[in-house]
Amino acid sequence: MTVAQTYQGLRVLDLGTNLAGPYAAMILGDLGADVVKIERAPGGDDTRALPPRWHDAATVFLSVNRNKRSLRLDIRSVEGRDALFKLVERADVIIESFPPGLAAKLSLTADDFRQRNPRVIVASISAFGDGPKGSAEPGYDALVQAVSGMMSFTGEAGGATVRLAPSVLDLSTGMWAAMGIMAALARRAESGQGAHVQAALLDSAFALMCHQVESFLATGRLPEKLGSGAPSAAPYRVFRAVDGEFMLATATDAQFERLCRSLGRDELLSDPRFAGMNARLEARTELDSILAACFATRSVDAWLTQLAAIGLSVGRVNDLGQALRTEIAEERQLLVDPRSIGWTNGLPLLRLPICSVGQGVHRPPPALGEHSVEILREAGLDAAAIARLTG
Q1: Chain Cα centroid distance, residue 15
Q2: Does the 236-318 domain belong in CATH 3.30.1540.10?
Q3: 201: Cβ–Cβ under 8 A, 6 or more apart, which residues?
Q4: What is the homologous superfamily of the domain 3-208+332-390 according to CATH?
Q5: Domain layout of the chain by residue ranges
Q6: What is the CA radius of gyration of the chain?
Q7: Which residue among 92, 170, 203, 288 is the active-site one?
Q8: Strand, helix or coil at 125?
Q9: Which of 122, 159, 263, 377 is the most buried (most CB within 10 A)?
Q10: Measured CA distances, 304 to 245, 293, 309, 321, 328 (Å)
Q11: For 371, which DSSP code?
Q12: What is the DSSP secondary-structure string of 308-359?
């Protein structure tokens, strides 16, 4: 059995929207689970309306919703909730990210689900958790980046506060939720009991900042904006060459020595300002200025060739298009050809990092309500009920 077949036979209800919940569900789908995406009527998942678009579909939606079947359902109606609970009764996992207060209002809490199915594992995803304060606070990735302190040290020194461009908190929270579900499934195999897994964007933010948190607790010093630099190593940043930029990362005194000798700047090794990593961190600005003047004299390729030859970690700063075309990205075969899953005129999709090449992606992202009739029929509803719910 391959990794991509791990959860064959597992039945998952995806009640999430936006990124975090759907990403968690997609991970399980890539690993073989049968994922039913339940989308509210009439418009479906919020991301379906977002630009940019590929033909009639939103690219944000396409990125986290493959390997799912779509059921459009009005869960605010009595008949819609009844249909949902029929699906709950045969589900193994439910993933939800309801806005604050909505689950209780509709009687769709984890307790409600588990009363109908004691074996079901419910994963609840929120911005700030389920405490008295957190449960009342809605939030998005960028907001939590701000509130958690993550934004405070992102960007160039003295520059404006900025967010990390990728949705790091949504996607990492989706991964935490998936890992929590996997742990709960392992426990259920022994106990026979379901569980309530909770994942919060705020928790994910602090987890991603683990070494900044520990450093602050140890020293009382707040992390600073360093641009492309690192808090614990120097020189370690982006430098500009004649025709572009490259990243240089040195993390030891031995690497610094090789760098200086390669550049013909042996005098830097005897300069007390740069004697040891702690000194270089204190004199980061002066050292970076000296090196920047040196690196500005030649091309990126020339520096990459010279510095890689002495075992230093260096790489060109690529835009996304360049990055996807690099030999190493092509070697990894990260993109799945849509023709391999029968998706006519579709977009290539990124495979999961844990799935081997050619594994995991087997169904294109669904059209809204594409599978409503077959899913409701599987739940045992009669033709008249299906017609009312899908009409």
Answers
A1: 18
A2: yes
A3: 20, 125, 126, 127, 128, 139, 141, 144, 169, 170, 173
A4: Crotonobetainyl-coa:carnitine coa-transferase; domain 1 (3.40.50.10540)
A5: 3-208+332-390, 236-318
A6: 25
A7: 170
A8: strand
A9: 122
A10: 11, 16, 8, 20, 15
A11: T
A12: HTTT-EEEE---HHHHHHSHHHHHHT-EEPGGGGT-TT---EEPPTTSPTT-
Give the tens place of pLDDT for each residue, 84-122.
999 999 999 999 999 999 999 999 999 999 999 999 999
Q: Write out pLDDT tens, residues 238-282.
A: 999 999 999 999 999 999 999 999 999 999 999 999 999 999 999
End-to-end CA distance of the chain: 41
345 class by beta-carbon count within 10 Å (0-12 exposed, 13-18 middle, 19+ buried): exposed
Q: Which residue has the tokens 């995806």?
A: 14
CA geometry: angle at 53 spanning 52 and 58, to 5°? 95
- Of 113, 92, 89, 93, the residue nearest 103 (C-alpha): 113
Residue 74 bears catalytic tag = no
CB 33 within 8 A of CB 7: yes
Q: Residue 114: what residue type?
A: R
Instruction: Enter the pTM of the model.
Output: 0.95
